[in-house]
Amino acid sequence: MPIVVDVDVMLARRKMSAGELAERVGITPANLAVLKNGRAKAVRFTTLGALCEVLDCQPGDLLRWEPEPGATEEGAAEGAVATARESG
């Protein structure tokens, strides 16, 4: 997936454990692990906001986009348009 989650980076910068973050944000350690390991399919804005509040950061500090190896910008755009047509 081209979205990379950098929660571990912010945890290290803040010298905070994953367990403490999960408790302070109000999510389970298992759900935090899913997010940290890049297995999450979605994240609620309320959760993202709580992560940013606790870690004193911006959403862009936690999430970044990286193109998939071998993917082109044109191919990615075409895929997004095809997906939008299929769901519309």
SSE layout and pairings?
Layout: E1 3-5, H1 7-14, H2 18-25, H3 29-36, H4 45-55, H5 59-62, E2 63-65, H6 73-87
Antiparallel strand pairs: 1-2
Helix pairs in contact: 2-3
DSSP summary, beta strand count: 2
Helix amount, in percent?
Answer: 55-70%
**SS strand fraction:** 5-15%
Mind describing the biggest β-sheet?
A: 2 strands, antiparallel
- Uncertain segments are none
**Global outline:** elongated
Radius of gyration: 15 Å
- Mean pLDDT equals 88
**Count of individual helical segments:** 6
List the helices and strands in order: EHHHHHEH
Trace the largest sheet across and list its strands.
1-2
What structural class is derived from the secondary structure elements?
mainly alpha
Amino-to-carboxy terminus distance: 23 Å
Q: How would you characterize the overall build of this protein?
A:
With 88 residues, the chain is mostly helical. It has six helices and two strands; from the N terminus they run βαααααβα. A two-stranded antiparallel ribbon has the order 1-2. The model has no long low-confidence stretch (mean pLDDT 88).
Features:
88 residues; mainly alpha; 2 strands; two-stranded antiparallel ribbon; single chain; 6 helices; 61% helix
Q: Outline of this structure?
A:
It contains 6 helices and 2 strands; from the N terminus they run E-H-H-H-H-H-E-H.
